[in-house]
Amino acid sequence: MYGVTALGAFLLGLVVGVLLTRRYAPAADDRAGELQRSRERILADAEEERRRLRHDLHDGLAPTLASLAMALDTARLTLGDRPEQVGPLLSDLRQRLAGAVGDIRELVAGLRPPALDDLGLAGAVGGLADGTDGIMVEVKISGELTALPAAVEVAAYRIVSEALSNVRRHSLAASALVRLDRGPDALHLVVADPGTGVPQGRDGTGLAAMRERAAEVGGACTIGPRPGGGTAVVARLPLNPLPEEPRRVRRHPSDHR
User: Fold this and answer.
1) Which one is predicted more confidently, 127 or 250?
2) Tens digits of per-residue pLDDT, 69-120?
3) Domain edge (last residue) among 111, 137, 154
4) Is residue 256 situated within a structural domain?
5) Which of 21, 43, 171, 256 has the fewest CB atoms within 10 Å around its CB?
6) What is the pLDDT of residue 153?
7) SS3 of 165-218
8) How many domains does the chain have?
9) DSSP structure string for 96-162
């Protein structure tokens, strides 16, 4: 009798296990597939950014600098033969040089927002808040935001920027809250507003970009309804993301012989 009871319990457990597997396996497969697609988008976006940067440097900035060098040679030769004509040449050269400097600044800003280096993350986020026209944005900071990994700083700044842009364009809210909390192992970020909320079925490039910014540093970002109405963007950014570049290998003095 005991053997029959044990066998029945085993078969019952087996059936329940099969039913649970059938119920939850599709959801697990969907999550794994979504994670894989997100990683593929991140890699594709990174490669596209490298291609854009190479194009801007090779086909834009490099010819401009070469042209400036030729113009400088022309001005130098003219100075000896026709010095009265050097003034206009130098004036034109200066205008073109100013344009090249502007192009370089745009390239640098695309790689890393200058405000992060000038003001730090707290000051840069404060600047975003002050620059959100028509909306009173309150910024609350908990913990020290210095000495953060560079990738985490950029991800946090971009997420806050996109979230405040969505508040301004879509929420119809008059106020918003930005909260940055540094924990022992992660930076926690919240951007909340009491507006109309995210329209049903809307998942544009801005929302996807915020999620991918967080995923790039091994974190996560969710966008959803806020208790009491409105929208909340919530992100967790680990403070030990993957290294941005390979570590330098220390060489033994004998390697230089």
Assistant:
1) 127
2) 787 778 777 877 787 777 887 888 888 878 777 777 666 666 788 899 899 9
3) 111
4) no
5) 256
6) 94
7) HHHHHHHCCCEEEEEEEECCCEEEEEEEECCCCCCCCCCCHHHHHHHHHHHHCC
8) 2
9) HHHHHHHHHHHHHHHHS-HHHHHHHHHHHHHHHHHTSTT-EEEEEEES--SS--HHHHHHHHHHHHH
Question: Are residues 212 and 99 part of one domain?
Answer: no
Residue 147, CA distances (Å) to 120, 144, 151, 160 in order: 9, 8, 11, 19
Pull the structure tokens for residue 126: 């404060």
Q: Is 256 helix (H, G, I), strand (E, B) or coil?
A: helix
The pTM (predicted TM-score) of the whole model is 0.61
The pLDDT-based confidence of 12 (bands split at 50, 70, 90) is low
Quick one: pLDDT at residue 254? 43
- Residue 132 phi, psi dihedral angles, 5° rounding: -85, 95
Q: Using alpha carbons, select from 221, 218, 223 the residue that is nearest to residue 193.
A: 223
Which residue range(s) make up the domain with 216? 114-238
CB 125 within 8 A of CB 118: no
19-73 pLDDT, tens digit per residue, is 555 665 555 566 666 666 666 665 555 566 666 666 666 677 778 777 877 877 7
Residue 1 is encoded by which pair of tokens? 């009798």
The stretch 187-215 carries a mean pLDDT of 82
Q: Pick from 62, 81, 111: which residue ends a domain?
A: 111
Q: What counts of helices (H) and strands (E) characterise the chain? A: 6, 5
Are 118 and 229 part of one and the same domain? yes
Residues 120 and 107 in one domain: no
